[in-house]
Amino acid sequence: MAGLSRKKLQLPKSVLEMKFMKRTKERIEKELENIHGHEGLYSNIITNEMRTATGNYIPEASFIYCENLIDGRLSFKGMNPEIERLMDLETPKEEESGEMQKDVSDEVLVKNMNKFKTRKRQSLTPSKYNVPSKKKK
Amino acid sequence: MREVYLSNCEKGFLQKVISEGHRLDGRNYNESRKLEISFGSEYGSCIVSLGETKVLAQVSCEVVQPKQIRPNEGILYINVEISPMAAPQFEANRQTDLTVYLNRLLEKCYKDSKCIDLESLCIVVEEKVWSLRVDIKVLNHEGNLIECASIATLASLAHFKRPDVTRSGDKVIIHTLIEKDPIPTVLYHYPVCIAFAIFSNDILVSDPSFIEESVCTSSSEEGGNKGGILVVGMNQYKELCLLDLMGAAIYNSNLVHKALINAADRCKEIVDLVKKSIVNNDTLRQKRVKKNFSDIITTEHMLSLSKRDLSICLKNYNVDDIEMSQDEEMEDDEDQNPEPSKYDVVPSLPQTAEIIAQKGASSWIEISSGSEED
Amino acid sequence: MKASVGDVVLPGDYCEEISAVGEKAKVIIGPGLQKEIDHVYVTKAGILKKRNPNTYWVDNYQKRYIPARGENVIGVVVQKAGDIFRVDVGSSTTAALSYLSFEGATKKNKPDVQIGDVVYAKMLVASKDMEPELVCVDSHGKKGRMGVLSDGFVFKCSLNLIRKILNPHCPLLESLKNEWPFELAAGMNGRIWIKANTMRETIALGNAILGAEYLSDEEIKSMCTNIATILAGHVS
């Protein structure tokens, strides 16, 4: 705190000396006094470690997040349709997030691309190239 | 002691299971859990386990002045302790109804039945007698504490040996165990307490588990005399030493009669096992084979003293079916290791420590075996 | 003593790896770890584990439950006190469950919960200085999977077993779910509620869950088929 206020922009002394700035001058002096007073008050409690501490450590009391556990309420083979509906709602979501980007699977894509390429080639190249490719098939 | 809260569904389901002729852990009505007795390194110390219920008993003796009304008799004192180790509802160093109840039943069973020859514990009439103290510590509470504790008391008393004493004139010399062979306690008969749980007025379930006990006592508390606990104390000659009735048992003499018949057979089995294991232990001691509690420590999982008795189990379920390969290995280990110690006389402590280490037990066992050489 | 990930750790050990990571990035320190001024200290005996991104915790064996915020637990209603239910969840004190924290409950429309009922609820407040508080609704006021569990059977087990069966990689539920219809609720407080159509099926389910505690994945699979055959052989 003290370091910050020292760095803060301060009015030049000459301006503060002006007559109409008297009140502002008094206020600034009071603030400074307060800061020093606080420091003295808590100096025995606030340690250097506290000043340098970071908020990087997030305590977590539960294993659920650490071990990535599933919800403990489950139902199978139609024992409790309500729970199974909830389970269904949750599971597809996870699958979607993995497979949403792949509406067309890799293999299908490769096949289609190959077809596309050969078609392009067919249209671009003369017919003599066309004949051997048909033989291969 | 904190209360143990039973839910309605536990009560309902258990009563349904019992009324349909089954039990939660797959036993029959009159089938008991597996009973195991293992002795410690000192005389009169043993751990008895009945399924997952475990009780440690230790007998100790000291010379005291006799009571004035019985100047030529020794004193037997029984003390039961249940710590939070047994179950979370217990508090440390606090007497509960259960400890008082166990203490009373055990005193009735072993003091009032006069199974111990107290006169043989006398050293000098009106001046000095032996006082035997049995300390019972409950290690794990999984139901039927009374049966387990009484077997532990009996086994430790029968196993115990007190130092020999010689009198010359006014002098009394107590010999150490090395100077003179210690003297075993004289037991006229071997009484054991057997507990039964009563369900829906006429079903008798022997060796009740924790949940069976709590369901049948709670149903007797909630009005209606449907459940209850029945404790029978009996010796190997089928002589009744103690009868403790609770709930439905009070009103139903047929039930008591049925329980007595069941208890008679069970008592015989238990006493035979106690005698056999003491004889085994004595012969091993004579061969100077180290025997202590480290023998019952298993290293196959984290809870070293417990086995794999499942509290919920199908009738035909067998753990061994699943992991044949592992169990075979384990058995091999057990077979191999005791062999050298069975035939070789173990002369000194360092080697004992080695053998124990081979069995894979933790190293703190060494300390307890230090006090063992007698 | 210094410890690193994968070690068996004891209370008082510290891990420099976590401190080093914590200098630069956010670190989640899970159960069994505590940040002190100079180090991250271990407070439980177990195995130090790590999961990306930067999550550390101690995997220990435990049977007694210490309430933790956000966990779903199974409790038994033991008392109705004014406008709250007292619920035994196996922790050092009972937890409070307000009757307003049920779906659709109002001052006039109280939920039908009796003493001795089993509830599946979420820990809302779990502090070492305060009574734990449960709720049976999510943040949208919907009951979701929570609420009173009727019929069935409840049993206790170690906290590790709960974590084992709820782990997404555990084969137990995978191999059981096609055998017979059943329903279960596993509370992080070491209690499992199970329900099936018949008594034998319920017992078989409990048997399979308890039996899985010390088995490997392969053994669990063979145990499940074993139980299923036992069950099938005696259904008639």
What are the salient characteristics of this protein?
heterotrimer, A: 137 residues, mainly alpha, disordered N terminus, B: 374 residues, Ribosomal Protein S5, domain 2, 2 domains, six-stranded mixed beta sheet, 14 strands, disordered C terminus
Give the total of domains of chain C: 3
Rg from alpha-carbon coordinates of chain C = 20 Å
Our measurement of the CA-to-CA distance between the termini of chain B, rounded to an integer number of angstroms, reads: 41 Å
Order of helices and strands of chain B: HEEEEHEEHEEEEEEHEEHHHHHH
Give the strand tally of chain B: 14
Count of strand segments of chain C: 15
Strand content of chain C: 25-35%
Oligomer: heterotrimer
The CA-CA distance between the termini of chain C, in Å, is 61 Å
The CATH topology of the largest domain in chain C corresponds to Ribosomal Protein S8, Chain: A, domain 1
Q: pLDDT under 50 segments of chain B (min length 5)?
A: 323-374
At the fourth level of CATH, the homologous superfamily of the largest domain in chain B is: GHMP Kinase, N-terminal domain
Keywords (chain C): Cytoplasm, Exosome, Nucleus, RNA-binding, rRNA processing
Family (chain C): Belongs to the RRP40 family.
Organism (chain C): Parnassius apollo (Apollo butterfly)
InterPro entries (chain C): Exosome_RNA_bind1/RRP40/RRP4 (IPR026699), KH_dom_type_1 (IPR004088), RRP40_KH-I (IPR049469), Rrp40_N_euk (IPR041054), Rrp40_S1 (IPR037319)
